[in-house]
Inverse folding.
């Protein structure tokens, strides 16, 4: 219903350039309020231990840093701040950048991953195919930036492919379906009877921080509205503000 309403508004305002004032009085359909699926620490550990190699390294920031799936796959080398133990998410949801934590347990595996990526990058340089995708504005402003080491993807694809936007052969990041399938297989092998996915690891990250009493969850998750973050307090059964009842302390 909402999609049809927005399509009609777009048609009249942007194509026909006519005012359709009466449509503003049409009631919008309310979205169903559903609680996110959350895994316990034991379930997360059981799932992660069933992921091998690069899939473990890719899935771990979803739970350890609260990344969305594509935010993880689009990480560049320069986004990893090992000294300050921070991870920079660039152009996240809402086209916003943010900082989140980089777990200490992830530093050695990520450093080994970068060693492998550097070898692939050097090979691509020798073969003349090391230009990674950059947004149009950056590619025009910094002509040679797409070959820099810091701009390379942390999780590059195994093979180069033709970029349909430019027709240039280059190495893109790993496709999202590969990690999604690996996580689904790990959930099934772990015997977790919940409809868990990659995004479930992000939900579990937020819930765990709230359980530990941290109040910076909104910033770490990149939520624009605090009401989006507050849904996790309902998962914890702690009420709208995440505050425990005095009766429970007796």
């Amino acid at each position: 219903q909402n999609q049809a309403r927005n399509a009609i508004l777009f048609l009249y305002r942007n194509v026909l350039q006519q005012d359709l004032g009466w449509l503003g009085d049409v009631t919008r359909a309310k979205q169903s309020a559903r609680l996110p699926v959350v895994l316990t620490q034991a379930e997360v550990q059981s799932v992660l231990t069933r992921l091998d190699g690069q899939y473990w390294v890719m899935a771990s920031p979803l739970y350890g840093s609260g990344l969305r799936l594509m935010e993880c796959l689009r990480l560049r080398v320069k986004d990893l701040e090992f000294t300050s133990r921070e991870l920079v998410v660039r152009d996240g949801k809402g086209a916003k950048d943010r900082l989140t934590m980089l777990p200490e347990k992830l530093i050695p595996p990520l450093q080994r991953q970068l060693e492998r990526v550097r070898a692939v990058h050097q090979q691509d340089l020798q073969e003349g195919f090391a230009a990674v995708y950059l947004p149009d504005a950056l590619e025009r402003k910094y002509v040679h930036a797409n070959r820099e080491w810091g701009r390379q993807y942390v999780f590059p694809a195994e093979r180069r492919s033709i970029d349909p936007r430019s027709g240039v052969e280059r190495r893109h990041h790993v496709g999202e379906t590969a990690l999604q399938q690996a996580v689904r297989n790990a959930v099934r092998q772990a015997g977790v009877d919940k409809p868990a996915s990659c995004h479930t690891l992000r939900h579990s990250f937020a819930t765990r921080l709230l359980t530990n009493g941290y109040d910076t969850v909104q910033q770490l998750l990149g939520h624009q509205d605090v009401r989006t973050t507050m849904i996790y307090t309902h998962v914890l059964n702690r009420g709208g503000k995440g505050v425990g009842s005095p009766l429970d302390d007796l």
Notes: Residues 238-248 have pLDDT under 50 and may be disordered. The chain is about 45% helix and 5% strand. Residues 107-127 form the longest helix (21 residues).
